[in-house]
């Protein structure tokens, strides 16, 4: 069965005996089968209340009866949703041999993870396996399952979903179920070199375990968003001026091009924070990492523990050797969800949520097919014959990445030197482009 909806004032599992109802307050005892018939027939509340009051033998309040009716409706709704979801996924699997769907249940037979992947998803992933964007979103269905999605970047710079899963909670167990299903259905999963997540995704350890050859990076947008929120935390007692200065230095660290740039911004921030304390605050930078130094500003300890230790995930100069294909944020996956959100909300039945996601995926795959099979020649007014050949052989997105480097290389004032080995540069490392030099 699928998870029951939880509403304020009622539990997900009614606290009733087999033959009677036991309310938390007045504890009336009635024949629950008769009440179920009333609810199923759409009997008016006042008639159901009258029946309960007459047969309970004890005082009954309106709230007790309303909670009882709601619990019965949830049970009926749960059974109907379970059947509809199972039927929908069976139909989905029968449409094409490559369509995959799986319902994972816990020991109580409650669905904790529902995974589905179309035939086109693994085909798309096999073409562009280097970078995987991973994130989850909420308010897509009435049972509060979170939509947990994997996405890749195609040749046009667009995001393409590679798998969807609906999870009842963001736990390690559910993450492993979704990842294992993905790896089972995508034989090229070991080619994933980069996984982009946001700071709120707590199951990073699961991804590092399941993708040992991949490097997990933090979404730049969510890193800055996190610091915007944390700067007002009462633990740090930062003035408005210090809050703004702190965010400015954090941005400088995020976009730093070298270790010296990063350390300079960090040290300036630490100095400002120490200056904000009492005059006798420590200035010895060697003690900034010492948790026993109680004079150090509390934000410094927080930063060293939570951010300094993982700066390879969020600082720019430390990811220049990583093939992230220009993905520094999870904006592409957010954009993909934005196409779904107008059709989904917290009141959407679970089966309708799945059907909507699958329908939109079908449209997305057809759109990619149209782009790929378009007849004609793409022309760019600024491209010369060589760049026009690149554009013809690739896509406007790829050519757009190459053009700034090409324009710089063809300037009269540009100086060249050659080596016998393959040139190591930012573009070749991050965009999986190999540039050969003339010996």
Automatic annotation (TrEMBL):
<dbReference type="Pfam" id="PF21056">
    <property type="entry name" value="ZSWIM1-3_RNaseH-like"/>
</dbReference>
<protein>
    <recommendedName>
        <fullName>ZSWIM1/3 RNaseH-like domain-containing protein</fullName>
    </recommendedName>
</protein>
<dbReference type="InterPro" id="IPR048324">
    <property type="entry name" value="ZSWIM1-3_RNaseH-like"/>
</dbReference>
<feature type="domain" description="ZSWIM1/3 RNaseH-like">
    <location>
        <begin position="91"/>
        <end position="217"/>
    </location>
</feature>
<dbReference type="InterPro" id="IPR052579">
    <property type="entry name" value="Zinc_finger_SWIM"/>
</dbReference>
């Amino acid at each position: 069965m699928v998870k029951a909806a939880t509403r304020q004032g009622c539990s997900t599992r009614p606290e009733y005996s087999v033959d009677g109802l036991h309310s938390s307050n007045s504890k009336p005892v009635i024949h629950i089968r008769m009440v179920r018939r009333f609810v199923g027939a759409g009997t008016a509340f006042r008639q159901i209340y009258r029946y309960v009051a007459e047969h309970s033998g004890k005082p009954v309040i309106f709230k007790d009866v309303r909670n009882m009716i709601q619990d019965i409706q949830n049970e009926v709704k749960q059974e109907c949703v379970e059947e509809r979801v199972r039927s929908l996924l069976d139909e989905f699997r029968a449409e094409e041999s490559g369509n995959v769907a799986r319902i994972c249940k816990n020991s109580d037979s409650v669905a904790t993870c529902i995974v589905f992947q179309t035939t086109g998803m693994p085909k798309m992933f096999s073409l562009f396996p280097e970078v995987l964007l991973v994130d989850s979103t909420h308010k897509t269905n009435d049972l509060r399952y979170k939509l947990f999605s994997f996405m890749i970047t195609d040749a046009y710079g667009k995001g393409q979903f590679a798998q969807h899963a609906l999870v009842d909670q963001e736990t390690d167990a559910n993450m492993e179920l979704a990842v294992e299903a993905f790896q089972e259905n995508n034989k090229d999963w070991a080619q994933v070199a980069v996984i982009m997540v946001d700071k709120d995704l707590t199951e990073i350890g699961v991804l590092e375990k399941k993708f040992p050859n991949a490097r997990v990076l933090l979404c730049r947008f969510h890193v800055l968003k996190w610091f915007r929120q944390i700067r007002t935390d009462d633990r740090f007692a930062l003035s408005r001026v210090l809050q703004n200065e702190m965010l400015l230095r954090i941005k400088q660290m995020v976009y730093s091009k070298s270790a010296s740039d990063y350390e300079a911004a960090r040290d300036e921030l630490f100095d400002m924070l120490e200056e904000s304390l009492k005059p006798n605050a420590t200035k010895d930078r060697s003690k900034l990492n010492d948790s026993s130094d109680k004079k150090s500003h509390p934000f410094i300890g927080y930063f060293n523990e939570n951010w300094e230790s993982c700066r390879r995930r969020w600082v720019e100069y430390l990811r220049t050797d990583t093939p992230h294909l220009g993905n520094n944020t999870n904006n592409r996956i957010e954009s993909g969800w934005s196409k779904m959100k107008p059709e989904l909300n917290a009141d959407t039945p679970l089966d309708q949520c799945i059907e909507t996601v699958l329908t939109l995926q079908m449209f997305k795959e057809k759109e990619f097919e149209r782009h790929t099979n378009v007849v004609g020649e793409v022309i760019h007014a600024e491209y010369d014959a060589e760049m026009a050949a690149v554009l013809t052989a690739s896509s406007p997105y790829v050519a757009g990445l190459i053009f700034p480097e090409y324009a710089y290389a063809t300037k009269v004032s540009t100086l060249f030197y050659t080596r016998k080995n393959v040139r190591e540069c930012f573009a070749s490392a991050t965009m999986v482009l190999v540039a050969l030099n003339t010996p």
